[in-house]
Amino acid sequence: MKAVYSGTFDPITNGHMDIIERASRMFDEVTVLIMRNVNKKCLFTETERRDLIVRSLQTLPQVHNVSVVIGEGLTVDMARQLGAVAIVRGIRAVSDYEYELKQATANMMLNPDIETMLMIARPQYSFLSSSVVKEIALNGGTITGMVPQEIEKEVMQALQEQMKQNQK
């Protein structure tokens, strides 16, 4: 069975990596689906995000059944095109659940053959999101332990660049 784990992943966090690792043990194949979201101002391009995820996955030797794809349009349509039977989503809090319930219900209406699987974030990642990582870094905090070590320096450099541009 194949699943997709969709999101913007701007940048990928250790919470995302945990969901990927756990999903990879449950499904034969997992596709990390980087979705374009015109409502979000992203730090990295889709191609840069794909490269960051691929590099981060190399640190998980047991994750051999994960691929990374850039998609657009409806997630449920991309899942169907990729042959997935499930969309994996991580939830950290009640507010995530409410949002994901709406999305899952809409997806069920669009394609009842694709299930949505909600995975609860581990406690150490329950506060963690890409937005939190950016906010902490932009305010001089450390993001060590929040993003994969292999990409931490690159994420910090991109955020510092953004901060310089915002000051102009």
Task: Report the β-strand fraction as a percent range.
Answer: 15-25%
Q: How many β-strands, per DSSP?
A: 5
Strand order of the largest sheet: 3-2-1-4-5
Radius of gyration: 16 Å
User: What is the overall silhouette?
Assistant: globular
Q: Low-confidence runs (pLDDT<50, min 5 residues)?
A: none
**Helical segment count:** 6
Mean pLDDT: 91
Helix content: 40-55%
Can you write the helix and strand succession as a string? Answer: EHEHEHEHEHH
Q: Structural class, from helix and strand content?
A: alpha/beta
Largest sheet: 5 strands, parallel
Distance between the termini: 50 Å
How would you portray this structure in words?
There is one protein chain. By secondary structure, the protein is α/β, with parallel strands linked by helices. The chain is built from six helices and five strands, in the order βαβαβαβαβαα. It has helices at 14-26, 46-57, 75-81, 94-110, 130-138, 149-167; strands at 2-7, 29-35, 66-71, 86-91, 115-120. The longest helix is centred in the last third of the chain and has 19 residues, at 149-167. The protein is globular. The mean pLDDT is 91. Residues 4-135 form the Cytidyltransferase-like domain. One of its GO terms (cellular component) is cytoplasm. One of its GO terms (molecular function) is pantetheine-phosphate adenylyltransferase activity. It catalyses: (R)-4'-phosphopantetheine + ATP + H(+) = 3'-dephospho-CoA + diphosphate.
